[in-house]
Write a structure and sequence with these properties.
The protein is mainly alpha-helical. It contains 18 helices and eight strands. A hairpin with a 6-residue loop joins β2 (203-205) and β3.
Length: 408
Amino acid sequence: MKLFSLFTKKKKDLTFERLVRRLLFYQDDKIFIEALTEACSLSSNGDELGVNALSEAIRRRCKRDDISFYKPLVGKLKTRPIKEHLDANEILLELAKSGKLLEDPKKTQNLMSAALVISTDGLKELLLSIYIHAGIEQGFDFQLLYNQLSQSVKLRVLNGEQTLTQKMELGQLSMDDINEIKDSIDSKGYKSESGYVGDEVNEYFCDICGNMMRKTSGYSFNTAQVVNSVRYWEKVFSGNNYKDMNSSVIIYSVKRNCSYSTAWIVCNNCASLVDGDSSIARKFAKQNEDPPGCGPVDELETSIIAGMGWSLAFNEWPESVQIGSNPIIQDASQGTVCDFCKRIIYGDEKLCFIGDDRYKLLKAKGIKFIRDPKSIHDLHGIKYKVACSICVNQSGMSDADKKSLFGG
């Protein structure tokens, strides 16, 4: 019986750890939302594991253990100055914009409670504003704090406490509401700060697609190898609702991804998206070691690569990524837009014209452009493509071939 008890405890501890890790997995909204739903479901059934997991996730996000949470009054009314209710929304949004929702969890939850009293939609509009103006990460922090607060009260009531102000102070931000918001503003493309799941099974979430995997069966790349890979960015943008958003979201995505100093653990399916030696990356993962060169990378260069990924996903260059000034002329029919990345070529840039015969020879050499467009230009019966210097450099072409193309 004692052995069975120890086995059950270990299994519950592993379930708890996995739930916490999934709540911290901000890269993939599906994993995060499913974990949030599971935590709330546990609380609704009277299981304190869900609230405990939410609380622990917040502690790890804060990177400290001495966290206090707000506990609404139960059994008697709480009164506040009306101005406190009216100002709560604005203060919460400002905290989110400055990245400080988790600076004092108790204070933030107190503001949530005040805001809910006069909210007509359970803070749904506020959450949407946070996603738009403060970013996905702050939106997820908000949801952790909100659900820790609401599920704690629910658990207290299920355990026999009676509340007079639960509906007024806490409202209900349902999972349907959260999913509705996430349908319009998706979060893919943000590397997890904590892909690790558990010692016992050596499980990770792939830092690109979010699928569960064993670390030692994957690939270990540094940040530069990942964020300077066009196919990685194509996957980031093509699997989401980014097309319905302003392309300025690229700036946030690049900044977020370039900041990581740890290794990226990548599954077998996603390894082909990274322009790095997969055999070496496989070796480091198998040995449970970080690859050399780990650390933050330059955002300016990466934004160009991300722009190419956007171009592959949506067949247009993102307006938010500007490389120069003084465009030659904004008319694709006159050959002033790169046929490969769809970017307007500027006056201080080099461009080249690649005839179909030359293009076939380059492909035979193994040269790989980001896409294989049809030749839409014709000069005296000779069809050709227009390429910018960035696409030529990205192709891996030799210096001799570049010189022959650019004529210098």
